[in-house]
Every structure is written in structure tokens, then in C-alpha cells.
Amino acid sequence: SIFLVTGSADKSVKFWSIEAQDEDTDVASGGQPMFVQTRTLQMTDDVVAVGYSKTVESTKRFVFVSTLDSTLSMDCSDDDVLLASGGADKTVKIWGLDFGDTHRTLHGHDDSITDLRFVRRTHNFFTSSKDGTVRYWDGDRFEQILLFNGHFAEVNCLAVSRNGAFV
Question: What's the rounded mean pLDDT across residues 39-52?
Fold first, then answer.
């Protein structure tokens, strides 16, 4: 089955399975897709973003949820070792996925962090912020590598190319 996770301002995270309407034909073979809700997770605040860990082993997969309480963005490294989150408190927190502990809190932005994305096959990541900057961080050394100025207003989102060659 193919799975989908959605988050909503109704304070819920819903898990969906995509199945064929016709039991004799699966979706991959051209069957009409149908979404079937399989589970609901109630949160204490509005859900802003959801994400999966990168592992292919379903028994080791994590689902990450950020809410309006202050965590606005997050991403996981490809090797499922680190989770980084950024929020309204202007900080980046780096978490270890083995025990769920906070490795470090990084400071640098002058306003809320709006997006965060890891570079594939590394522990380096980019953040964007309402302060109009994009920053490049080393998640192993816990330090900022580069500061990008260029926007004259808040930077709401960013995307990193598959090979990390451009943002």
C-alpha cells in the first residue's frame, strides 16, 4: 500500500492508505485510487507540518509533527540520525533520533524560522527565516557555515536540489 499523512488546523494528524476501488486491480496496475483513513492522532495544537523519517524499514519509521505552539519547520537527515527543528523562538534544535535527546540549540536568526531542509547524504542543512536570510549549518559541528542575504522581506520556504548543488 501507498501511505499518506496529513496535518490540519483541526489539531489532528491523519494517516491514509491509497487503495484501488476495484479489489481485482491494484493502483499500480491502473486501478482507480481511493483514500482510506487508517488512523488519527490528536494533537494539542494546530498542525503546521508533518514528515517521515527516511528509512525504508516500516518498523523503524518515525512520523514528525510540528504545531503552532512554536515549532514551525523540521527535517530529518537521510541516515535517520538527526532531526532538526526551527521555530518561532528563532532557534534551531538538533535532536538525536536514537534517544530523542536534544544535542544542541543553535542561535543566529533574528526572527522566526520558517523552513528547514537537510542536504542529502549529509548532516548539513539550510534554514530560512522571517528575518529575510537563509543560513547554511553544519549539524555535526553545531555551527553556521554561511549566511545568505538577498531578500528584502521574510523568506517563507526553501528547497534543496537532490545533489545539494543549489537551493
Answer: 92
